[in-house]
C-alpha cells in the first residue's frame, strides 16, 4: 500500500534571490521518483513563491530567512509552502486594478497568476494574525490521474 500522507523535513534558506537555484535543486531532489510534470510544476511555483518571500518581506534583508515546507496529502496532492519573516505589512494577492494595456505592459506582479494557473489552489496564512511576523504562502499541485507516489516514500522524509 502506498503512503497517503508524507512530510518532508522543512528546509531553511537565506532570504536572498541568489538562493533560488538551490531552492529549485533541493525541491527536485526531494521529489525524486515523482512524475516529471508535477516536479516541474512545483519548481515553477517554488520560484515565484520564494522570490516573493525575498522581495516583499524582511526575509530579503540582511539575516532574513525563508522556510520551505513540503507534504503529500491524500496520496495525490503535493503542497508546497514558503514562510517569510514578515515586516512588509503586505499580503500576497493578485492585482486587479489594471487595464488590459497596463497588464500587457506590466513587468512585475504576474507570478501569482502563474501559481494560480499551475495549481488547483493557492493561498496564504499569517504566522501570527495579530502581528506582521511572517506569512506562509502555499500552492497545491495534484499528481496526474493514475499516478501514485514513489514506492520508496516514507511518512516522514529527512532532507539532509
UniProtKB/TrEMBL annotation:
Q: What is this protein called?
A: Anti-sigma regulatory factor (Ser/Thr protein kinase)
| Species | Nocardiopsis algeriensis
Q: Which GO terms describe its molecular function?
A: protein serine/threonine kinase activity
Specify the superkingdom.
Bacteria
One Pfam annotation reads HATPase_c_2
Q: Where would I find the Histidine kinase/HSP90-like ATPase domain in this sequence?
A: 15-136
UniProt keyword annotations, A-Z: Kinase, Serine/threonine-protein kinase, Transferase
Amino acid at each position: 500500500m502506498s503512503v497517503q500522507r508524507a512530510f518532508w523535513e522543512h528546509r531553511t534558506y537565506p532570504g536572498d534571490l541568489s538562493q533560488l537555484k538551490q531552492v529549485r535543486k533541493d525541491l527536485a531532489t526531494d521529489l525524486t521518483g515523482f512524475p516529471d510534470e508535477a516536479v516541474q510544476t512545483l519548481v515553477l511555483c517554488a520560484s515565484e513563491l520564494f522570490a516573493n518571500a525575498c522581495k516583499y518581506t524582511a526575509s530579503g534583508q540582511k539575516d532574513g530567512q525563508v522556510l520551505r515546507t513540503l507534504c503529500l496529502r491524500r496520496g495525490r496532492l503535493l503542497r508546497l509552502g514558503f514562510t517569510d519573516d514578515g515586516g512588509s505589512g503586505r499580503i500576497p494577492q493578485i492585482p486587479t486594478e489594471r487595464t488590459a494595456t497596463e497588464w500587457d505592459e506590466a513587468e512585475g506582479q504576474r507570478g501569482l497568476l502563474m501559481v494560480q494557473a499551475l495549481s488547483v489552489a493557492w493561498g496564504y496564512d499569517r504566522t501570527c494574525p495579530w502581528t506582521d511576523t511572517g506569512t506562509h504562502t502555499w500552492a497545491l499541485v495534484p499528481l496526474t490521474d493514475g499516478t501514485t507516489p514513489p514506492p520508496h516514500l516514507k511518512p516522514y522524509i529527512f532532507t539532509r
